[in-house]
Amino acid sequence: MNKKTKILNKQNNELDKLIADENQEIFTDIICYLRNSDLSDYNIEVVRNDITTMVLDGQKRGDSIEQVIGGDYREFCDSIIDTFPKKTSVEKLLGTTDLICFCMAILLTIHLLLSKETIDIIKNLVTKQPTDFTYTITLGTVMGMVVIMIAAVLLVKAILDNIFSGKEKKKPVGFTVLFAVIIALLIASLFVKMPLFSINILVVIAMIIVLYGAHFIISEIGY
Amino acid sequence: MIPSQMLKGTLEGCILKVIHEKETYGYEISERLKEYGFSDISEGTIYPMLLRLEKNGMIAARKKDSPVGPKRKYFSLTSEGKKELHSFFESWEELCAAVDNVFKENDNE
Predict the structure, then answer these.
(1) Min CA distance, B95 vs chain A (Å)?
(2) What range defines the domain where residue B44 resides?
(3) End-of-domain residue from the set A44, A65, A83
(4) Is A165 on the interface with B (CB under 8 A)?
(5) DSSP letter, residue A163
(6) What is the ipTM of this complex?
(7) pLDDT tens-digit map of A189-198
């Protein structure tokens, strides 16, 4: 997120707090739907600012969000999205790269903090025992990371596809099956101990720093 | 109620006309349109159109203080917008005349 976008984002976060509870759910759904679209971060914040002002003005008049927007929220959002140019292939690639870098950085950090190797290294360093800095990446680790990332993307997609369905929100059978498969794969990944490769733990820390750095740089460029 | 398909092509021209009258903001435009007979218009209906008109350089927006809340976007017509409004009205008159002719001729038969 570049500086201009960050400033607007901060202003919007403050304005969001003034949205009445009864309007909050639909307002959040609209913003989530727009965030998942092809709009750039900056355009999302511009539109978010406009919609927030519209809703807050409506609240002062005693109008609900339904009266302000007109009821068909999906059509409202799609009309807004159609107004802006679609993301180019480069922008889409930057977005995907950013997402992967950020997810991997978080997952690697969690894995590093919870791994037996890290605990052993700390224990040995404290007790001044000979220390082995080798860190083994197993097939289960890689499997778990990939499954978590795919599951997160699919879960967000499933929620957004259903976002404006109101009370008749349907839970497709495919979604339940997919959820079961993801859980099964995650459990299985805990038991797959086959080592893929071993590296120095400092290399893993360097990888995490590079991944966070890449995420930071891509976010600053904006896409 | 005017069908939405029929409404789509004409509403942008009417929005330009309302903005031409005076610098104004979204809610006021929707209220003016209601007064003119567009019964089912909300601020949400016209917001995407305002975005498109602004993007295409037909209208310009500036933020002004609002007595009731955060700063509002006020819209005014650009020179491009004035040209577009003129061209819309010419096309509209042509269309009206053609539709009138069709109906008059059929009524006489």
Answers:
(1) 26
(2) 4-108
(3) A83
(4) no
(5) T
(6) 0.86
(7) 778 888 888 9
